[in-house]
Amino acid sequence: MARASAFDRDVQTAIAGARGQVKTLLIAEITRQVERVEQDNRPPFIRRFVDGVKDRPLAEIDPFGRAFFTFHYLRDAVRDAVEILRSTSPVDTGAYQSSHNVFIDDASIAPVVGKGDGGSLWSYSLLDRITDQSRVAISPTVEYARIIESGYRGSSVEAKHVYRNATTAIQRRWGGVIIARFEFIGQDVPGARYARQPAMVLEAVG
């Protein structure tokens, strides 16, 4: 019995050592792949599931378990959308170009005005509050925004389709991970002829 017990302990020790080696190799491989994605694509937001548990530390993975990571790019897509809207805006006084307002979950964070990061007209640090669960809308706040977008019937004002075209561009560029929609959303814009203004609405896929 003593020999059998000693043998059992040796077997269990060997199995534990093998499981430990498998776990070390598994963690090293997962870490390598995640670091490669971070280096190549620089996702601003990563969600981790280890053995089916959200945000569980990777060190707690079972030697034969599974780790699942989702990489989210909504923040980058919103930044890209702001740049496209600004660069394609018709410029007269500059008021329309500077009026594109960002709403995160229906709350306005700031219009695209004022000195910001890297000499831009806007501080992109404001986008840090965007998560993979956010619903983001971008919409102008000048009273004639809808006329710029859709034109004015019976006049010589032609539709510029600034938001419609920008939404198409974002959907083509980010369509695998982002859903971008062109909509008209309600805004309280003083002097506006219409209650609903053109907007781009962005959400993460899944």
Labels describing this entry:
single chain; about 210 residues; alpha+beta; 2 domains; 5-stranded antiparallel β-sheet; 3-stranded antiparallel β-sheet; 4 helices; about 35% helix; elongated
Describe the protein.
This protein has helices at residues 2-41, 74-88, 145-150, 162-174, and strands at residues 45-50, 53-54, 67-72, 100-104, 107-111, 135-140, 178-186, 196-204. A hairpin with a 2-residue loop joins β1 and β2. It has 206 residues and is α+β, with helices and mostly antiparallel strands.
Spatial order of strands in the largest sheet? 5-4-6-8-7
What is the H/E order?
HEEEHEEEHHEE
Distance between the termini: 58 Å
Mind summarizing the main beta sheet?
Answer: 5 strands, antiparallel
Indicate the low-confidence ranges by residue numbers: 112-121
Q: Give the count of helical stretches.
A: 4
Shape: elongated
- What is the number of independent domains? 2
Q: Which value, in Å, is the CA radius of gyration?
A: 26 Å
- Overall pLDDT metric: 78
